[in-house]
Design goal:
62% helix, mainly alpha
Amino acid sequence: MKYKWILLQVFVISIPMYAQAEAPQVVAAPVPAVEIKYNDPLDPFEEINRTMWDFNYLFLDRYIIRPVAHGYKDYVPNPLRTGVNNFVYNLEEPSSLVNNTLQGKWKWAANAGGRFTVNTTIGLLGLVDVADMMGMHRKQDDFNEVLGYYGTPNGPYFMAPFYGPIVTRELASDWVDGLYFPLSELTFWQSVLKWGLKGLDARSKAIDQERLLDNALDPYAFVKDAYLQHVDYKVFDGDVPSSQADDELLDEYLDELE
């Protein structure tokens, strides 16, 4: 009788084990990986550019450039910052004279020449913008704007490490502006210093827009669109023609609202 109870217990215990072994195994179907495709014709290298953006924005700007720009704005007196900025931009007036001349903008070419003469002499080598006080306001054109004026397209958009957004037309033509006096007389390190001072001034002036960028759904796309609009704005002196594609999209949107 004792052996019967032992056999019964073994049989009862083995039932769920057998049932578990015989139960069909449900295999979950593999979840396909999400593939992100970028199809902006103005930004054919977007995947690489976004990687460069992450480096510039999430590391370089956050931990180095932004603190320096805040310190520059908070602790350097405004008259000193203005003087340094005036001096740097005064070096570019001769190249602006040539570029405006190449576009047939005679008024602005004369304006650039007059600004350089007045500010270099009366304005203490450009530290004081006396020309602006006399009604000759700053409007500087780069050689890449000359190319854009005559129909050369922007070309692909790039996010350059340590530099930021730039289009191919700028990459191919910015060196031309350095051929004119006094930029041609600068050494390599003096040119780097000039570039750094311009960048620092521009970054300090963008402090008020930091929250707008930080709260953007896609900061990369936000900066790209803003920069491409800025490039067109400079080429057309603020009078940017609307494209037919944009008009069609607007018409479609208005039709949907109706």
